[in-house]
Amino acid sequence: xxxxxxxxxxxxxxxxxxxxxxxxxxxxxxxxxxxxxxxxxxxxxxxxxxxxxxxxxxxxxxxxxxxxxxxxxxxxxxxxxxxxxxxxxxxxxxxxxxxxxxxxxxxxxxxxxxxxxxxxxxxxxxxxxxxxxxxxxxxxxxxxxxxxxxxxxxxxxxxxxxxxxxxxxxxxxxxxxxxxxxxxxxxxxxxxxxxxxxxxxxxxxxxxxxxxxxxxxxxxxxxxxxxxxxxxxxxxxxxxxxxxxxxxxxxxxxxxxxxxxxxxxxxxxxxxxxxxxxxxxxxxxxxxxxxxxxxxxxxxxxxxxxxxxxxxxxxxxxxxxxxxxxxxxxxxxxxxxxxxxxxxxxxxxxxxxxxxxxxxxxxxxxxxxxxxxxxxxxxxxxxxxxxxxxxxxxxxxxxxxxxxxxxxx
Length: 409
Hints:
By secondary structure, the chain is of the alpha/beta class.
């Protein structure tokens, strides 16, 4: 039996997912329309929303688990939000407007927001199901990885994107002997050009991590548990733990069961509404104009738009110009826009004494893309130039030196 709302004057709002995007939406909607909704939030993990960006420092022992907390449970109660954790939604009826949790509880809603996030991709190679093959995505993964890392045994991390590098760094700091293998010819190829990636590789290796590029996994071998990894070139690398960090994919299984329009992600319009009226999707699970974003900034922008739509305010999402601003193995790096810049003009600046590198892609007298390595002081200014499409002719010659020189020009 579906429970009825206690307060019929307020719409029942169900938020499926209590990750960073889901929490951001809750913050926005309670600020924009306080008291307008009877809100229920459901999280799959036992913990309330936490900062996934800090999982690597936690694995490395640089912070403690409490540092990941974003809002105490009391915050949800203070904002009249009923929070359910540890029992995900397993079915959703868009016509009856009801959702069933794994524990059998049924929740009624008038409006629903999907913030189900993404899940790690696992390579379909022989031995992938052996004991000791892990992923690095959630707080619950940390204890298993940390115990293996502290044993000083050989560990292989598959995947040289940001999460793979972070996992490798965390395991190395925990005490493991770490080898990082990546199928591409450079690390973080989605965020960095060749020269910036080379600087990151050198920094990773300086931490005592062995890096193999152009390395494709053929199989994982062991008698019941992992003993080694075999590459397609025949090379064998000993390992008692293999961490797969080869990417993520939107978590759409619930949406597909509910017959929402899904491609790579849950398809949404400019108001973040799905193919079913009154049902929205935000963050890593959402697909807008054929784009799926796996970063925090777009998720937060989408959360704001969805909250405005539900609060009956002007709401329009036009996509996000991707920008990455990080410190990877001690090297600050930043990229935004079309940083490869095929066919465009490139402006390169290097400071050999400090190891700084800056690359600018210019098209039609506008900044189209940028890569910074070593010094990211002016990153946000460059990002805003790309997004505004402002002409740079007046300060083109001093572009590499930041806004102070541009203002002088």
